[in-house]
């Protein structure tokens, strides 16, 4: 990510454009373009070597007019409050665009879990909840996993919350392990959701998935399940890219006849980093990290980090690319977005494309509340239904009003949140 980008400014600029389209009043604009609440805190951790490290944590609640806040917690060495603010805002729009009764929130800790033992990670998770237990909860704000956090982290957080509260609250957090309040299908949900929307977009464009190729940035949770389902519907992924922890830079892995998940997953660590030399031995071409964007493919799926398609990189997108499905949150800067729109590339915006995760988290909460858990097929078919109807509503509006897909998705989402905010009498 380029250093001078501010994701919160990007999120606000996207909002301002649609607020004008919707003729929102001054008070409504003011309440929706910034978070309602945010918490900044320190988390001291007694490290294995006897020292104490103090980590900085954040939780931001952007808007809860439509229901309790919802959003992941990221562990990242370059985490910033502006990234968390932007992501919390995108969560509000994401829950609204798929029409689930939740608001938007996000959390983060500035840390690199690669350098933390399991015990230190557990203390960090428990410390995070201790700082926030009064301000989050099943009816207030519900966290979930995100970049570099997983089901184990969620369970430690749940355990700490239940210890403090003195009762069982499985709906406090989502992304829990299956059998301990987690939902089947949650692991697959975001990546599959991306492909449910890709499938619908291709249908509209009159293109068969079997006739398409794709390049993917990232090889973590979202990317892998997106690749799996995309390959199942007939597509070919020629390229993936990921971060190399040892060298502290990204690499791209290419196999013209199509990458094979069965080959790559066993040589990938828990953080989604593929081993370069083992991949080379398996016949993969190893290219610079930025190479994924310049591939001669039909579909690009950025599924790593924010601000990866920028004014500097957008020009490298091949003329062959017809569709961009934003698996990651905020992968495209405002400047790059204009170029994509001008070039007429069909775009499935992040908060629609990757809404499968939060939709399944909502299903997880519903199941926790019932204390009855659905089979995986039931979860995934409900997910398909939600994602497909959200996609169809957005693309229909885009066609009818001749709007760019991102703007159409924003119009639907912001309008729903603004109506809830107004109906509550906040403005
Ligand atoms: P993850 O930690 O499982 O994987 C991240 C992947 O990105 C890893 O393979 C990592 O090596 C790679 N990466 C990191 N920096 C890179 C770089 N500079 N170039 C290339 N690759 C790089 O994370 P994830 O859960 O797959 O999330 C990916 C994106 O999707 C994030 O933007 C996240 O906010 C978003 N998202 C995730 C979910 C979810 O359910 N997991 C839901 C919605 C949105």
In short:
With 427 residues, this protein is an alpha/beta fold. The chain has helices at residues 7-21, 26-32, 81-97, 118-132, 151-165, 186-205, 221-232, 261-264, 276-281, 334-342, 350-353, 356-370, 376-401, 405-423, and strands spanning 37-46, 52-63, 69-76, 104-110, 141-145, 213-217, 236-244, 249-254, 285-288, 299-302, 323-325, 346-348. The two termini are 37 Å apart.
Describe the structure.
With 427 residues, the protein is of the alpha/beta class. The protein folds into two domains: 33-182, 3-Layer(aba) Sandwich (Rossmann fold); 187-353, NAD(P)-binding Rossmann-like Domain (Rossmann fold, 3-Layer(aba) Sandwich), CATH 3.40.50.720. Helices cover 43% and strands 18% of the residues. It has 14 helices and twelve strands. It has helices at residues 7-21, 26-32, 81-97, 118-132, 151-165, 186-205, 221-232, 261-264, 276-281, 334-342, 350-353, 356-370, 376-401, 405-423, and strands spanning 37-46, 52-63, 69-76, 104-110, 141-145, 213-217, 236-244, 249-254, 285-288, 299-302, 323-325, 346-348. The strands form two sheets. A seven-stranded mixed sheet has the order 9-8-7-6-10-11-12. The model has no long low-confidence stretch (mean pLDDT 96). Nicotinamide-adenine-dinucleotide is lined by residues 146-148, 190, 217-223, 241-243, 250, 271-273, 289, 303-305, 327-329, 354, 357.
């Amino acid at each position: 990510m380029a250093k001078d980008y501010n994701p919160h400014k990007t999120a606000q600029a996207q909002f301002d454009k649609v607020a004008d389209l919707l003729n929102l009043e001054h008070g409504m604009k003011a309440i929706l373009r910034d978070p309602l609440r945010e918490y900044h805190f320190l988390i001291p951790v007694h490290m294995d070597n006897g020292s104490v490290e103090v980590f900085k944590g954040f939780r931001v609640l952007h808007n809860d007019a439509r229901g309790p806040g919802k959003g992941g917690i990221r562990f990242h060495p370059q985490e910033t409050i502006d990234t968390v603010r932007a992501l919390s805002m995108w969560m509000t729009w994401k829950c609204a665009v798929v029409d689930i009764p939740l608001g938007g929130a996000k959390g983060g800790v500035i840390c690199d879990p690669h350098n933390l033992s399991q015990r230190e990670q557990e203390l960090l998770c428990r410390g995070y909840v201790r700082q926030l237990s009064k301000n989050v909860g099943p009816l207030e704000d519900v966290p979930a996993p995100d970049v570099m956090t997983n089901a184990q982290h969620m369970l430690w957080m749940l355990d700490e919350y239940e210890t403090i509260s003195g009762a069982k609250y499985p709906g406090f957090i989502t992304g829990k392990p299956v059998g301990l309040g987690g939902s089947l299908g949650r692991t697959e949900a975001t990546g599959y959701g991306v492909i449910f929307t890709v499938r619908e977009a291709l249908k509209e464009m009159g293109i068969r998935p079997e006739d398409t190729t794709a390049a993917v940035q990232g090889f973590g949770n979202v990317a892998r399940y997106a690749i799996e389902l995309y390959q199942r519907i007939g597509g070919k992924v020629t390229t993936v890219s990921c971060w190399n922890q040892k060298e502290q830079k990204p690499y791209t892995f290419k196999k013209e006849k199509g990458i094979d998940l069965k080959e790559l997953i066993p040589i990938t660590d828990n953080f989604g980093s593929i081993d370069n030399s083992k991949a080379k031995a398996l016949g993969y071409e190893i290219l610079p990290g930025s190479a994924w964007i310049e591939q001669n493919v039909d579909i690009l799926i950025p599924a790593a980090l924010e601000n990866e398609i920028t004014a500097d990189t957008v020009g490298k997108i091949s003329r062959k690319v017809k569709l961009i499905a934003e698996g990651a949150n905020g992968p495209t800067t405002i400047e790059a977005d204009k170029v994509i729109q001008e070039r007429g590339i069909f775009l499935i915006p992040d908060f629609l494309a990757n809404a499968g995760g939060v939709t399944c988290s909502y299903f997880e909460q519903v199941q926790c509340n019932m204390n009855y858990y659905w089979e995986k097929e039931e979860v995934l078919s409900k997910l398909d239904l939600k994602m497909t109807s959200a996609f169809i509503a957005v693309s229909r509006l885009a066609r009818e009003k001749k709007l760019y897909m991102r703007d159409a998705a924003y119009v639907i989402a912001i309008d729903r949140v603004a109506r809830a905010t107004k109906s509550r009498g906040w403005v």
